[in-house]
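Cross-posted from the bioinformatics board.
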Amino acid sequence: MARKAIGRSVPRVDAYDKVTGRAKYTDDLADRNALIAKILHSTIANGLVTKIDTGRAEKLPGVVKILTCFDVPDIEFPTAGHPWSTDPAHRDPTDRKLLNRRVRLYGDDIAAVVAEDEVAASRALRAIEVQYEEYPAATDPEEAMRDGVPLLHEGFPNNILERHSVLDGDFDEATKEEGLIRVEGTYQTPTVQHCHIELPTSYAYMEGGRVVVVSSTQIPHIVRRIVGQALGIPWGMVRIIKPYIGGGFGNKQDALYEPLNAWLSVQLGGRLVKLELSREEAFYGTRVRHAVKVHITSYVRPDGRIVARDAKFVSNQGAYGSHGHSIVSKCVTAFRQLYNDERAKRAEAVTVYTNTATSGAMRGYGTPQSVFGMECHADDIAARLGIDPMEFRRMNMMPVGYTDPFSKNVNWSDSFNQCIEKGREYIGWDRKRELYRNQSGPVRRGVGMSLLWYNTAVWPISMEVSSCRMVLNQDGSVQIQLGETEIGQGADTVFAQMTADTLGVPFESVHVVSTQDTDITPFGTGAYGSRQTYVGGMAIKRTAESLKGKILRFASERADTGPDALDIDDGFIVRKGEPGSALFALSELATDVLYSMEHSMHFTAEETVQAKSNAYSFGAGFAEVEVDIPLAKVRLVDIVNVHDCGRLINPQLAAAQVHGGMSMGIGYGLYEKMLYDPGTGKLLNDNLLDYKLSTIMDHPHLEALFVENPEPTSAFGTKALGEPPTVPCAPAIRNAVFHATGVAANENPLTPHVLFPLFKAAGLIG
Amino acid sequence: MARKAIGRSVPRVDAYDKVTGRAKYTDDLADRNALIAKILHSTIANGLVTKIDTGRAEKLPGVVKILTCFDVPDIEFPTAGHPWSTDPAHRDPTDRKLLNRRVRLYGDDIAAVVAEDEVAASRALRAIEVQYEEYPAATDPEEAMRDGVPLLHEGFPNNILERHSVLDGDFDEATKEEGLIRVEGTYQTPTVQHCHIELPTSYAYMEGGRVVVVSSTQIPHIVRRIVGQALGIPWGMVRIIKPYIGGGFGNKQDALYEPLNAWLSVQLGGRLVKLELSREEAFYGTRVRHAVKVHITSYVRPDGRIVARDAKFVSNQGAYGSHGHSIVSKCVTAFRQLYNDERAKRAEAVTVYTNTATSGAMRGYGTPQSVFGMECHADDIAARLGIDPMEFRRMNMMPVGYTDPFSKNVNWSDSFNQCIEKGREYIGWDRKRELYRNQSGPVRRGVGMSLLWYNTAVWPISMEVSSCRMVLNQDGSVQIQLGETEIGQGADTVFAQMTADTLGVPFESVHVVSTQDTDITPFGTGAYGSRQTYVGGMAIKRTAESLKGKILRFASERADTGPDALDIDDGFIVRKGEPGSALFALSELATDVLYSMEHSMHFTAEETVQAKSNAYSFGAGFAEVEVDIPLAKVRLVDIVNVHDCGRLINPQLAAAQVHGGMSMGIGYGLYEKMLYDPGTGKLLNDNLLDYKLSTIMDHPHLEALFVENPEPTSAFGTKALGEPPTVPCAPAIRNAVFHATGVAANENPLTPHVLFPLFKAAGLIG
């Protein structure tokens, strides 16, 4: 039998092209004669544009057109990368125009210049004169919620975008139990940015009366709909093309500047207009991770069993709705799933508009925030009770066999314990917890851990669907097209592996059409929700089986046997169950059927699969740190993530996903935070010199370990791995610092600014 | 009921983009940093390259790589744009390498330079030194066939590529009938070139280990196979992309330089290499129309009825095989079909290699040559018998009800007589034949006519297949993808019209994906054989019906009725037979089905249709000329083509096809001929200054008339119109000159060089 592709670390299908620089990204594809668009951003954080004088700017050489917030259509549109819902109650906030007269953050988009080159466009920006009516700015949600603070959006009193609460069990009754210990804590996560290598870039032009946008996006089919909505044109009049992209991490799960870019081209009669953001613009003008503050109150028995918990989440939405309340809703879901309170749990969440960068989707989608709170809190409880934090977790975490009443997700396996065991052994938990127990001196070590929970795909919150098409070539190789997107994570390679094994052809015979083009690519919603191997895998399986069925029916004529007696193995038609019995090559058959004078057929297959399931993905993270107390500085000594993402399609790519997520998690735990000037609302560190992104220089060896419990609901046994790796690192680091120093910091990143006052208050620094 | 798209002269779908210059052609799409390839051509017409010294050229700045005929793979490949045949007996000649050491024409490809720019490439060409062993060249087939003449290709004695003969009836017996009049004539047609506006242009690069060629071709799927063959790699490792192209007329129904271009890129590790020919190179280095000489002997009764005919065709193939003998085979087929000899016919055809430009496919594919011979001959017979040439034709032409025993084609209607009547009336045949009967003086007028016969598609000679895919958008509009190609003729528009009416949506709701990409576009063989509306139409009909079926099944759930009770009209779901009864909009339904939480589906449809039929296309052409006898100059006064191409999908586009074909036919009759220096074999007029292409300045008003007899075997009642218009003009003009002067010229074009000696011999010039 042929060597299977699944389970092997085959090289990425795009490895050579990407390493040699031959792979084409949006900017590589744009016509060199493209007109250049640049955006004029507001220099106040809150207020109203009263006048824009473009007179001087328009006279500058090379300036083609200037359009302002006074010119745009009076349409407010949503930007979140969710499937459209035919139910208005399930739609995303629609609160943004192409350019905004009502300015809501420092850096809001108020005008756009289109010029023949970058220099002319930049000069024009400087020559535009703007007058504002300015209002006080609120950058903090608690401040923004106060009565009397100017409202960012009409119809949202106290700047509250949305609020909801949940209750499981009888909370009041549960907390009356005698002997319960009440533990409380408030945990604050920072605003951080995705910092993908490729900045948001697009270009737009018209063709056949329709507008085409080539864009670095995770969600081409969704962007098509949003551009249609923003411009007020039928969605079929829009075509989105997505080439290779240099990372997204959720930022490109929003329609960012595609609608504006499309509109600018339309205003110029369809001339090709390119719009590439600077790093600075990406920081304040695209999306960031919601800063979430959570206050948790737990009621536990002295033996460590949680009886009830209450959590109150406050989420900083920033200036515009984007994914809005759905991120803090995921915080609440994570809160409800990770630990199995014996009697009750209660949560409340509020999302608040502020005059800061718009928060949207980012790897983990609320889970990093929620898990940071819960997992810091877990160690706080364990410390209070004097029990091992690992044992505390084992006692309370979601048990095997748990079935969620809403999503119907099942915890099929003992994944948590298996992950914990692997991490425990790798990090030397028992020895080090003991070894580092009673340290003195200025430099101390500690180990900490965190669990992680995630789900796979978005059903039943949203529709889940994926379509796939396969085309058989005359040499027996196949192309595969999928609406799901390669965004740097290696999706194309994994799709090719799935196709190869289902169809029975060598991995090298599968050619992935990496570019999505909404005119031709089967519909899929794109890269988000750690959904692609799960939902896309279902579509691939069904499509490959359909194609295989057609091939075998034709083969059976030639083999003079029923199609059920045949199979395909390693590119050969074989007798079923006899992989070595090559009857004839698929390549021969493929040529024959196409050129048959009798019944010429172009063998292709196309299938849509709607996923009506979802799957739990589990894991645990462990960190060892060395804390220099006088410097209030943390050095990460060792770190490991252990994941159960089901069956590993490509172990090397899986590990790479984990490494990337860990890097992001380390930055979240130790370095990254967007800082605003409280007076002006201006972002202070909108570049990669001032914003401390975690890089390889800051990392120890990153260890990625796996537990493989194939997921029964998944076509290939897989479940989420894209987002989970970023989740456990920050709380594991925080808990390691707690272990090392006895100081429980409740705010990340753990910079010297955070730690110094805590160490001082704890008497560690004189 | 909605206004149907079929039958209306809707504007071309690409009109606006093409008029504004926004439509992208191959060269527009090539990266500006492309490396530039140029070809070194031989300066002898026959011989062997013994040495190439590239030393000096390689040292020139900007030169990247020079490859010669000593470097290419030892693979001889076919170039003809025919579907591959699994039967070796039905394959095209394989007699060409990527670069040829054995030189067979003046201008053969012997080396290629790849450089950073055009200037460096051109300088390098001049710096390469070549040594040859030279043989005598033969530019004329009769010379090339002589014993002892050097053979161009091994295994082809007397340079004969192929020879065949056919016999219907008992010729010897038939010609023994008493009282028969024997009429003989020899008719010679010239070598002409297609002269499409866009020169053959391509660029190639590698992606994912495969080679991609973007090319101005009529036949992307076929070129894929040929590039695979030429490079000796599996066909699936090749991807061909065809953007808009600026005309082809059959020249681009060959793989021209795509194989060389692909190979050059592969030799450079996949760097992007562009290869654009000059007009001069297009003349000698691509393809030309076969010059055919035919000798016809007819046996007719005094009343004009043909009893038997014999024809002997000699076809000049030029240096390489290309479509080879199949063109002169079509000459023979036309000879057998147009006239209905009462008792017998006999034909013999031979295709001969010569040291001239390679002959290939060109609009009409042998028919212009054959019909020129037959229709000159028809007038010669009529004159000899003293009967009206129109009456002579009516007496002998293919009768209504005729069924061809091989193709099974049926002459369903009295098309010939209907076309003749329309033309007769337009040109004022009866009056002018009488009026111009007895002219004297130096300037005289005449009217002439010609019939035309053509068939549609290539079945049963070759496989005929077309695949189509349709994609429903969320606004109820659709994309259509087809392997058949827009080459400037308006195919995309006609495909959109067919789709709109079959599906029941407005014409504006159909978006044609014009670009073919062999990785994703359904298989179709491309633009040739006047096949696309016929075979592509079948694929469109079946695919649109399939998509409609899916839509109506979903609609029936909502309408609470069976799908058979519903229909789609003007973009609305209606009750069948009640076009006005809009139940709901397709746009609404399309959004609903995609975003359904119940059963989300991406509605697409894909179908392959193998055509196992073919259809006759008929017509007649009439011309009126004014001949200045002393100057031996012909002025075309009036000209009309009357076609029965079945149902007209788009009358304006149909007329445009006819106008273009007439222009080409006028050039064929009056101006165009490639001239070789008999000593060196060098083409003397390889540019548009020296080669007299027929242009609008040379034309009178071009009248296109139609007779519409819908073809029963055709999905939309259509049959061939792409090629037929070019057929009747040259013989009609020749017969008009004959009528005006009494001089029967048997060689076109009717330049003063041809006419002067004839007028002199006839005593018209003193």
